[in-house]
């Protein structure tokens, strides 16, 4: 019996030599061999099967009744039915398995086929030869991450762990998500752009073009990214004033698509994390997650939620406007210092791809510097 539709089991030698490709141009391709945020841990319930799409691939994320989180390709290798439309079952001698809704084929959390119900007793067949592609998964700080390899059929084991975010302590206090019609590159650059705020986000409680002034911020390289080192918030950012005291904030970006702002007010703190997950080449999910032990957060939460939703809608609207121009594939002009972070992102992507193609350590190309711009 042929098993061409299944991902073949590879030898350790084959698994150690995945294929590599060169750096993709801006707005094309993805950062691979990397961890992508996929869901809040609280949203992955026991016995649940949920379909996600990451980099154009259907990914089932589930949790066994015993509490194990797992991820596998959401396509049954028999007749291509989505496994997420099935159910989690527990059969004697098999343990917990995902049962396909079409013909009942069952797969363990590691993707190996456990049973084919249509086989009769004298039809000997090694079901272990069939497997669904599985993805390494991590659950930490209340978040679930999936590892997307450069060679999905011959993946290497992850050689680094997902980022650990300072201040992500206790339960998540607020989360909002929105899908943008944008490649992740444009979404990242828009997220790190310091000059668009006065024109795109003109709420009375934030800032406007009439309150613009020159800023100078110090930046330094960090693991797989860079940080705007800890500083007092800008005087024209009114929202920070409700925290009281003397808040100090540090803003960090890390590949493949994480941006977080850690605000310290005395012994209290606020963490605002933005995760960018590429759904397809032209669609990116933006998830904003907040933690805080500051007493003001409870009072301000309804207003903060409205602000987050307003910001996402405004950014999404600008993305749609930008797409009107991008469909003509124009050359883009990047200027210093306001666009330096956009340049850094592209440098990081190129170095990431090259370092992995050359099987060497990643070398952060960013040097400590101070950037100046008006906003």
UniProtKB/TrEMBL annotation:
InterPro entries: Cholesterol_7-desaturase, Rieske_2Fe-2S, Rieske_2Fe-2S_sf. Residues 35-146 form the Rieske domain. It comes from the Bacteria. The keyword Metal-binding applies. Signal peptide: none annotated. Transmembrane segments: none annotated. It holds the Pfam family Rieske. GO terms for molecular function: dioxygenase activity. Residues 1-23 are annotated as: Disordered. Keywords: 2Fe-2S, Dioxygenase, Iron, Iron-sulfur, Metal-binding, Oxidoreductase. This is Aromatic ring-hydroxylating dioxygenase subunit alpha. It comes from Brevundimonas albigilva.
């Amino acid at each position: 019996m042929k098993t061409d539709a299944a991902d073949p089991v590879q030898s350790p030698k084959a698994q150690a030599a995945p294929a590599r490709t060169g750096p993709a141009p801006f707005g094309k391709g993805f950062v691979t061999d990397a961890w992508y945020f996929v869901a809040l841990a609280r949203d992955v319930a026991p016995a649940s099967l949920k379909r996600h799409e990451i980099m154009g691939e259907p990914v089932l994320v589930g949790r066994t009744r015993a509490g194990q989180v797992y991820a596998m390709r959401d396509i049954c290798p028999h007749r291509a039915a989505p496994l997420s439309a099935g159910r989690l079952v527990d059969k004697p001698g098999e343990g917990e398995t995902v049962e396909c809704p079409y013909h009942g084929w069952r797969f363990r959390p590691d993707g190996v086929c456990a049973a084919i119900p249509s086989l009769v007793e004298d039809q000997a067949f090694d079901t272990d030869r069939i497997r669904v592609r599985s993805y390494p998964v991590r659950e930490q700080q209340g978040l679930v991450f999936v590892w997307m390899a450069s060679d999905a059929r011959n993946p290497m084991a992850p050689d680094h762990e997902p980022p650990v975010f300072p201040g992500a302590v206790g339960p998540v206090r607020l989360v909002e998500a929105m899908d943008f019609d944008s490649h992740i590159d444009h979404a990242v650059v828009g997220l790190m752009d310091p000059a668009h705020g006065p024109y795109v986000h003109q709420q009375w409680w934030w800032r406007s073009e009439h309150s613009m002034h020159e800023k100078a911020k110090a930046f330094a390289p960090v693991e797989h990214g860079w940080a705007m080192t800890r500083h007092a918030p800008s005087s024209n950012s009114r929202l920070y004033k409700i925290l009281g005291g003397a808040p100090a904030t540090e803003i960090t970006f890390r590949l493949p698509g994480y941006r977080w702002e850690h605000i310290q007010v005395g012994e209290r703190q606020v963490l605002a994390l933005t995760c960018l997950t590429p759904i397809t080449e032209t669609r990116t999910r933006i998830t904003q997650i907040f933690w805080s032990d500051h007493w003001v957060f409870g009072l301000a939460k309804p207003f903060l939620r409205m602000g987050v939703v307003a910001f996402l809608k405004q950014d999404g609207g600008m993305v749609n406007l930008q797409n009107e121009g991008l469909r003509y594939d124009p050359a883009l002009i990047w200027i210093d210092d306001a666009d330096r972070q956009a340049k850094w992102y592209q440098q990081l992507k190129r170095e990431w791809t090259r370092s992995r193609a050359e099987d060497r350590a990643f070398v952060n190309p960013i040097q400590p510097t101070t950037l100046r711009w008006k906003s």
